[in-house]
């Protein structure tokens, strides 16, 4: 039992060391990359200790170290919560980060600032772990903002490119909108439950009103790219592929979902929030799956796939199944990271070609990457007994046999079949058929720093679902009986999607469509959402503010209201009321005669 | 009414006539205005001093102050007119005719 605290804290402390030596000479040579990678490996192994102890004894732990400050009645400490979620997530995150760091030693090999890249990845990992292990909302917010900042720095890694800068700003702005919700719930909790620490919040508000949960849902929608705040995720593919693999597939984007999972004692009592999460998640998953169908950039297809899976996680939360959501987070991390690494291998080997219309026939040329890509796609679609099956199939089963919104269920099933469709699209365009890239390409995959991470994640994609779902202590009773047609729903729609996509691709591969139909335009332009929202609403707001500030305040109230109006009134009145001819001498003379006459005539009292 | 009063009242009446019957220059009207003010001042001072009306001792001085201000304004207007037209002929002030 004593190893619990020390190994957890050791894990966190080990990761800080490479950041601290970055001001010394050690940072300048290229041993630094190996150092960072090995530290992550050691941290992974160290974090397996508390995880195994937790699985064995099912005992949670709360480490409350250092009392920072007490502001009247609010006590802020540095406290780590080692429970089911954080203990299971830490090894998974560290394993994936280790693999990605090894991969980026191959991918970013020729980059002059590679040491800074590793430092940024490490700081991101540290802030993510702070977020995951936080016991109070303040520490969670520190981690939350930290991952946002590192996401900004890493997306704009190649900051000479305007698209990358725009994408990074877009990520920050959309995350900020979500942060408004987070701050709202922090303020509500402070005001009503007098604390920011999770234990007291759960004790004091068993049936909270909708407002704080609404704030948390908004925060999750911003960070996890739900519909309405989703455009930043496909734009974030401007960053290097390791960044996409780490941040925007496995780790950062699940932070929002993780927040909602942390608050599951509050959401399980509020039906309105559950329905809202369900609808939002279903809408997100279908919308992003539709957008993924006609994209031509391989990284964007995988990004939309991530967004679709995040919508699925939100849907599961809406079905009041936080532990199942968490399982899906862990399993999804494996195969999504592997999909990104395979796409990175393809991109680098084809000399930075990201358009799938210019790839093809890699089936024979890159056998290992092909294997990994196909297994990753199968795991994504939920092929039985691969990793994705254990979480995704369970989610669909729970959804079909629970008392829930039939519309959300229908959307989820449609999105599941679309998952198969765009997976087939990836496989078909990149791997099969004849090559469509220029012939003189230097293609090889012999470097062990490329092969080993993909190999590890491949084994994880195949077995991790089995291992995780059999090791995790069960938290609620699983569903044991259901009709056969409900049990086979997920498998049926997925198979349908595969078959349909393959048939259409094979029949139409030599055809060209002369006019784009409306549905294709809808899908390729991402549902017109960025076109409308990025231009129209800023234009409206800025026009309104110009009218208010300049025209109304400055010109009207300050200038015209008193000064110019007074002058105008005087002018008009004087021109109206005066009808003189300017014959002054005549007027004076008549005045004199009148005075004289009146004095003469009225002087004698008679 | 005593002789002094009649004297000063005739001075006032002469200035008034001069104000109302000037020939062409605005300057002469202003001068006659000053003459009216001066005669009023003398009249008021003499009457108040001879009747020992102490409470109204201030009145001629205040009258003189206001007369000075008025003269200044009148001269400013004269200068404005003279700037526009070059002379101060009264027959030039005919812009208000409709």
Offer a few descriptive terms.
heterodimer; A: 606 residues; mainly alpha; two-stranded antiparallel sheet; 25 helices; 2 strands; 72% helix; B: 98 residues; 3 helices; NAD (chain B); transmembrane (chain B); NADH dehydrogenase (ubiquinone) activity (chain B); mitochondrion inner membrane (chain B)
Characterization of the model:
Chain B: Keywords: Electron transport, Membrane, Mitochondrion, Mitochondrion inner membrane, NAD, Respiratory chain, Translocase, Transmembrane, Transmembrane helix, Transport, Ubiquinone. Chain B: This is NADH-ubiquinone oxidoreductase chain 4L. Chain B: The chain crosses the membrane at residues 6-22, 29-49, 61-81. The complex is a heterodimer of chains A (606) and B (98). Chain A is mainly alpha-helical and 606 residues long. Chain A has a domain at 137-512. In chain A, 72% of the residues lie in helices and 3% in strands. Chain A has helices at 2-20, 32-57, 84-107, 114-132, 137-155, 162-193, 198-204, 210-223, 232-235, 241-251, 254-262, 264-267, 271-292, 298-318, 322-349, 362-365, 367-381, 387-400, 406-431, 448-471, 484-487, 489-507, 518-524, 529-577, 584-601, and strands at 61-71, 74-82. The termini of chain A are far apart. By secondary structure, chain B is mainly alpha-helical. Helix content of chain B is 71%, strand content 0%. Chain B contains 3 helices and no strands. In chain B, helix 1 runs antiparallel to helix 2 and helix 2 (26-50) runs antiparallel to helix 3. Chain B starts with a helix and ends in a 13-residue tail after the last helix. The model of chain B has no long low-confidence stretch (mean pLDDT 89). Classes of the chains: A mainly alpha (606), B mainly alpha (98). At the A-B interface, helix 25 of A face helix 1 of B.
């Amino acid at each position: 039992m004593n190893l619990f605290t020390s190994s957890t804290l050791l894990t966190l402390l080990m990761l800080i060391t490479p950041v601290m030596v970055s001001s010394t000479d050690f940072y300048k040579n290229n041993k630094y990359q190996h150092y960072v990678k090995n530290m992550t490996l050691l941290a992974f192994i160290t974090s397996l200790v508390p995880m195994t102890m937790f699985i064995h004894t099912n005992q949670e732990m709360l480490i409350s170290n250092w009392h920072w400050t007490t502001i009247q009645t609010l006590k802020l400490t540095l406290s780590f919560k080692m429970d089911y979620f954080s203990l299971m997530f830490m090894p998974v995150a560290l394993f994936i980060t280790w693999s990605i760091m090894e991969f980026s030693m191959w991918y970013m090999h020729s980059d002059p600032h590679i040491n800074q890249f590793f430092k940024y990845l490490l700081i991101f990992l540290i802030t993510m772990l702070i977020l995951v292990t936080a016991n109070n909302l303040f520490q969670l917010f520190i981690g939350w903002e930290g991952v946002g900042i590192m996401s900004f720095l890493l997306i704009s890694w190649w900051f000479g490119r305007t698209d990358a800068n725009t994408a990074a700003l877009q990520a920050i702005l959309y995350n900020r909108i979500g942060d408004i919700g987070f701050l709202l719930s922090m303020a509500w909790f402070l005001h009503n439950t007098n604390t920011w620490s999770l234990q007291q919040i759960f004790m004091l508000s068993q049936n909270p009103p909708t407002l704080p949960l609404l704030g948390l849902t908004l925060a999750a929608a911003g960070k996890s790219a739900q519909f309405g705040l989703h455009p930043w995720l496909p734009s974030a593919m401007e960053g290097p592929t390791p960044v996409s693999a780490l941040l925007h597939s496995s780790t950062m984007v699940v932070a929002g979902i993780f927040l909602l999972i942390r608050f599951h004692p509050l959401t399980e009592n509020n039906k309105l929030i559950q329905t809202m999460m369900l609808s939002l998640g279903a809408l997100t998953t279908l919308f992003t799956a539709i957008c993924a169908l006609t994209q031509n950039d391989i990284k964007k297809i995988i990004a939309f796939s991530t967004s679709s899976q995040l919508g699925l996680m939100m849907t599961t939360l809406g079905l009041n199944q936080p532990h199942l959501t968490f399982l899906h987070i862990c399993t999804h991390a494996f195969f999504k990271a592997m999909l990104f690494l395979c796409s990175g291998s393809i991109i680098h080997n084809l000399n930075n070609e990201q358009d799938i219309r210019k790839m093809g026939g890699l089936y024979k040329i890159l056998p290992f990457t092909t294997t990994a890509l196909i297994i990753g796609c199968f795991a994504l679609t939920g092929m039985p007994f691969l990793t994705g099956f254990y979480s995704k199939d369970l989610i669909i089963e729970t959804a079909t046999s629970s008392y829930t919104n039939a519309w959300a269920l229908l959307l989820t099933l449609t999105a599941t079949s679309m998952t198969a469709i765009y997976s087939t699209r990836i496989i078909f365009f990149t791997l099969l058929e004849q090559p469509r890239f220029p012939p003189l390409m230097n293609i090889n995959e012999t470097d062990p720093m490329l092969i080993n991470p993909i190999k590890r994640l491949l084994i994880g994609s195949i077995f991790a679902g089995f291992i995780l779902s059999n090791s995790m202590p069960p938290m609620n009773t699983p569903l044991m009986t259901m009709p056969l047609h409900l049990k086979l729903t997920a498998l049926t729609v997925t198979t349908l999607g595969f078959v349909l996509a393959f048939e259409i691709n094979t029949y139409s591969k030599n055809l060209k469509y002369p006019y784009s139909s409306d549905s294709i335009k809808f899908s390729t332009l991402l549902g017109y959402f960025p076109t409308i929202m990025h231009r129209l609403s800023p234009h409206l707001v800025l026009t309104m503010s110009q009218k208010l500030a300049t025209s109304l305040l400055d010109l009207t109230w300050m200038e015209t209201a008193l000064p110019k109006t007074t002058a105008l009134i005087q002018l008009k009145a004087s021109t109206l009321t005066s009808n003189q001819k300017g014959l002054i001498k005549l007027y004076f003379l008549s005045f004199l005669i009148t005075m004289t006459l009146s004095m003469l005539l009225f002087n004698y009292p008679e | 009414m005593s002789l002094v009063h009649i004297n000063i009242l005739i001075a006032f009446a002469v200035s008034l006539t001069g104000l109302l019957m000037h020939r062409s220059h605005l300057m002469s009207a202003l001068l006659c205005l000053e003459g009216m003010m001066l005669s009023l001042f003398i009249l008021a001072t003499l009457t108040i001093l001879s009747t020992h009306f102490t409470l109204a001792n201030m009145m001629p001085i205040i009258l003189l102050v206001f007369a000075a201000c008025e003269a200044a304004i009148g001269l400013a207007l004269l200068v404005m007119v003279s700037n526009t037209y070059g002379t101060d002929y009264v027959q030039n002030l005919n812009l208000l005719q409709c």
